[in-house]
Design a protein that fits this description.
The protein is mostly helical and 69 residues long. It is built from 3 helices and 2 strands; from the N terminus they run H-H-E-E-H. It has a two-stranded antiparallel sheet with strand order 1-2.
Length: 69
């Protein structure tokens, strides 16, 4: 599984902003997970927008009684 990042143009389109500060502000306001690169520009992983990992089957939690002690 490889990590796919949004391009600069895709982040500009997503946020409607072309500046670092503008993009970061919009990402924070909308709760979009992102990191900040060393250059100061935001970096967004594509799967954070599509919830790809959320569809994977998880094992259901099993109930276990407390031990009498």
């Amino acid at each position: 599984m490889s990590i796919v990042f949004l391009t600069h143009d895709q982040i500009c389109e997503l946020t409607g902003a072309r500046t670092k500060a503008g993009q970061i502000t919009v990402l924070k306001q909308n709760g979009i997970r992102h990191t900040i690169k060393m250059s100061g520009w935001p970096c967004v992983i594509a799967s954070s927008l599509t919830n790809e990992g959320a569809n994977q089957q998880k094992e259901p939690a099993t109930w276990q009684p407390r031990k009498a002690g």
